[in-house]
Amino acid sequence: MTEKYKDARYRNAISKGKKITKLHDGNGLFLWVYENGRKYWRLRYRIHGKEKSISLGVYPDVTLSEARERAKAERKKVEDYIDPSIERKAAKQKAKQAAENSFEAIAREWYSKQIHTWVASHAKDVMRRLEGNVFPYIGVHPISKIEAPELLNMIRIIENRGSYDLAHRVLQVCGQVFRYGVVTGRCSRDPAADLKGALTPHKKKNQAAVSPEELPELLRAISIYESIGDRQTQLALQLLALTFVRTNELIGAVWTEFDLENALWIVPAERMKMRNEHVVPLSSQALKIITELKAIAGNSRYLLPGRNPNKPISNNTLLFALYRLGYKGKMTGHGFRAVASTVLNESGFNPDAIERQLAHCESNEVRGGAYNRAKYLPERVKMMAWWSDYLEGLEKGASVVPLFKKSG
Questions:
Q1: Bigger pLDDT: 361 or 390?
Q2: In angstroms, how far is CA 171 from the centroid of its own chain?
Q3: Catalytic residue check, 330
Q4: Is 72 a catalytic residue?
Q5: Phi, psi of 259, rounded to the nearest 5 degrees
Q6: Fewer beta carbons within 10 angstroms: which end of the chain, N or C?
Q7: Rounded CA gap, 248 and 316, in Å?
C-alpha cells in the first residue's frame, strides 16, 4: 500500500461508532481515531519484557512521513535500551523544575511575600515593571543561571528608550528578587550587585514645593480658588496644607476614619505607604473645613466624592487646581509635606515628632514590630495646632511666634 494511499485512508478514517479505532501502519506505529474525530499517532514498543506505547503527535499536524521518522528515532532508543516513556517523564520533570526555578517564578513568589507591606499603587508599579521590562527578557531563564552581562543587556534596552530612572528602579527590584532567591536556596548570588556603576546616572527629581517665604502668597491664592474653581477643591487644598498628609491619603479618606469628637483622623494601615496606621490630630481649623466638606459630600462615604458619589475625586484634581493657580512646576500636593517639615524643624519642634507626623516610620521599628501610632501624640497635637495657626496667620498677613526657640 503506497504512502499516498495510506495517507488518504488515514485522512478519511472515522471511529465507526467505537470509542477508539486503531489503524496499523507498521513496525508498531498506529493511528488512533477517536469518536470525536481527533486522530493521534502512537508507537507501541517492547522493552525489558514490557509492552508500552507513547504518543507521537496529532494527525494531520504531524504528517504520515513525519510520524514514521519519529517512530524510527524512538525505536532506535529502544534498541539502545533507552525507554522513551521514562525519558519523556524525566524531561518533563526537568522542565517543571526549571519553570519552578525560573526568574519569573521566583519573582512572583517574592512579590506575593511583599505585597501585603505595600500600598496598592506601589504594588501595581512593581508588577508592571517586572511584566513590561524583565519577564520578556529573562523571565523563563533559571534564576541560578542568569549572569551580570545578561542582566545588563536587559537594562540597556530600558536605557535606550531614555528611561534612566526606570532602569535604576528595575535593577533595584531585580536585586531584591535575586537576594530572595539566595536566601531560599534557588541561586547562589545577586548578579545585580555587579552592575553598580554600569548604569547611566540619572538625576532624581524632587517633588516641586514652594519655599517658606513663598507660602503666604500660595495660601492667599488658595483662599480665593472658589472664584475660578469649586469650593470642595479649595477646601481640599486647605485641608492638605493643614494636615500635610500624602495626596492619595487625603483623596481616599472615608468618613469612618474620622473621630471628630476627639479631633483625630485615623488613617488605616492598608492606605498608608508604610502599612502602619497613622493618626492625624485635627486642629480647630481642620475641623471647620471637615464640617463643611461633610455638608458637600452628602451621603457619600468619601470625604471628597467625585462626580460619581461612590468614588473619590481623581488623583489629578488637586494638582490641576494648583496648575490653575499658576503653580505648575512650582508646587505639588506632596510639596506641602516638604514645606511643613522645613518650617516645623526650623521652629524648634521635636524632629522625631515631626517625622512621626509625616508618617516616616523608622525601619528598625518595622522590623521589630514596635510601631506605636500614638508615639509623641501630645507633642503632635500641639504642633498641628501651632501649624494651623501659623498658616492662618500667613494667609492673613500676620506673624506667628514659634513655640520653641532654637538653641545656639
A1: 390
A2: 15
A3: no
A4: no
A5: -105, 85
A6: C
A7: 10
